[in-house]
Specification:
The chain has one domain: Glycosidases (TIM Barrel), CATH 3.20.20. It is globular and about 50 Å long. Helix 12 links the parallel strand 10 and strand 11. By secondary structure, the protein is α/β, with parallel strands linked by helices. Helix 7 runs parallel beside helix 9, helix 8 packs antiparallel against helix 9 and helix 11 packs parallel to helix 12. The two termini are 20 Å apart. It is 38% helix and 19% strand. An eight-stranded parallel β-barrel has the order 1-2-3-4-5-8-10-11, surrounded by six helices. A two-stranded antiparallel sheet has the order 6-7. A two-stranded antiparallel sheet has the order 12-13. Bound molecules: beta-D-fucopyranose (FCB). Beta-D-fucopyranose (FCB) binds next to loops.
């Protein structure tokens, strides 16, 4: 007989994750502008029609069902819904409502992200995150989104990876809006916390009750030189700031970031206290941190410490860090959802092993009492990977980017076996 730790309980959800800009196609927003400005790694890459999920959504729901998924994460594209400031596009809202209803009819629980990195182009010109007006702007958008969610029992995510957006967009200037300023980063962070709380009020007003959280990119950290006191100090500072500051603010109402010489803040936002029902974790890898004697004083590196080989995108395959990450969020006393986890594996052979090793950590965390309730694989389909463009392939299904044909990778069988048998099977034994 199996011990409970070896199995996923029947209420545990297996699902898949996507985001609007990366899969839908035909979206005009700040990222499209960024691409035209030649700012991607491959300056000529364009997202364009993406993988045409906008028209193929029913086929994609069926593909999700075929791997045993019972939840499907999408994001709503703000630029479709509010193409000009204050003008809402009823047809776009209607189209999203129809998609969500069909998703539900396919037996997939909607997991709906309001904001997944992208903005309507007017946003940065008129109410960027570092200005207080960003909060009522997001509130008004969230109010429209709330109306789409009635009767769906959706899991709702206000922001996807806010720290990634802030680090890339406000501190490093690498993604829109291309600002590189520590003080503005902290103001933007505060306004995003306030915006989450404002969105929550709108969701509650419309729906009565809501299951709301954020999706937080959480990295395992290690010192690049184990013996170097400054590398070690960086690790001690980075995890609270990068992994926990946002979660902490939404649990306690206290926002604290302490990265001396980079960005720091300490502010109380009472309306943010107790403002999530679940903790959303996006886990991919571990970063080694190295002190460098010039701003921003910190260098991120991915290292192949165990000879497993970096993933194709160049990240360390480090399932061990997943367990620690899950232990670390136990402190919030909320159910946990893995809102993303996955591997860029262009040949498709490593993915079943990646799934196996990472799901084993989920079971280990559950056995230690971490209430992990669901796992959403990133991603159902190969798609457009932000600055990296069309190179990476995270999909359970391979997509031919010319014909848009979707074909199962070996991980489809593996995912289906685990999701339906609700226990870990060893890859290669199917
Ligand atoms: C996460 C993003 C997601 C996808 C994966 C690979 O950081 O949330 O959109 O790009 O990485």
């Amino acid at each position: 007989m199996r011990t409970p730790e070896e199995t996923f309980p029947t209420h545990f959800t297996f699902g898949v994750a996507t985001s609007a800009y990366q899969v839908e196609g035909g979206i005009e927003n700040d990222w499209a502008e960024w691409e035209r400005a030649g700012k991607l790694k491959e300056p000529h890459a364009r997202c364009g029609r993406a993988v045409d999920h906008w028209h193929r959504y029913e086929e994609d729901y069926a593909l999700a069902k075929a791997v045993g998924a019972t939840a499907f994460r999408i994001s709503l594209e703000w630029a479709r819904i509010e193409p000009e400031r204050g003008r809402f596009d009823e047809a776009a809202l209607e189209a999203y409502r129809e998609r969500l209803l069909k998703m539900k009819a396919h037996g997939l629980r909607p997991v709906v992200t309001l904001h997944h990195f992208t903005h309507p182009s007017w946003f940065h010109r008129e109410t960027p995150w570092h200005l207080p007006q960003s909060v009522p702007t997001f509130r008004r958008y969230a109010q429209r989104c709330a109306a789409l969610l009635e009767g769906l029992d959706a899991l709702v995510i206000s922001f996807n990876e806010p720290m990634v957006l802030l680090l890339g967009g406000y501190l490093q200037g690498a993604i829109p809006p291309g600002i590189a300023d520590g003080a503005l980063t902290m103001r933007a962070l505060e306004n995003m916390v306030r915006s989450h709380a404002a969105a929550r009020q709108e969701l509650l007003a419309k729906l009565g009750r809501v299951e709301l959280g954020i999706s937080q990119n959480m990295l395992a950290f290690a010192p690049d030189r184990w013996w170097h006191p400054l590398d070690r100090a960086l690790v001690r500072l980075a995890s609270p700031a990068y992994n926990h500051a946002f979660h902490e603010a939404l649990a306690t109402g206290h926002l604290r970031v302490n990265m001396p010489g980079v960005a720091s803040t300490r502010v109380t936002i009472p309306e943010a206290r107790d403002s999530v029902e679940f903790i959303g974790v996006n886990y991919y890898s571990r970063a080694h941190l190295r002190f460098v004697p010039r701003p921003p004083f910190i260098e991120f590196k991915y290292r192949d410490t165990r000879g497993r080989g970096l993933t194709d995108i160049g990240w360390e395959d480090w399932p061990e860090g997943f367990l620690q990450t899950l232990r670390d969020v136990k402190r919030y006393g909320r159910p946990v959802w893995i809102t993303e986890n996955g591997i860029d594996d262009r040949a498709g052979a490593r993915r079943p092993h990646y799934l196996h090793s990472h799901l084993a950590q989920v079971l280990a965390a559950r056995a230690e009492g971490v209430d992990v309730q669901g796992y959403l694989y990133w991603s159902l389909l190969d798609n457009f990977e932000w600055l990296e463009g069309w190179g990476p392939r995270f999909g359970l299904y391979h997509v031919d980017f010319d014909t848009l044909e979707r074909r199962p990778t070996p991980a489809c069988d593996y995912f289906r076996a685990v999701a339906t048998q609700r226990r870990l099977v060893a890859p290669g034994t199917l």
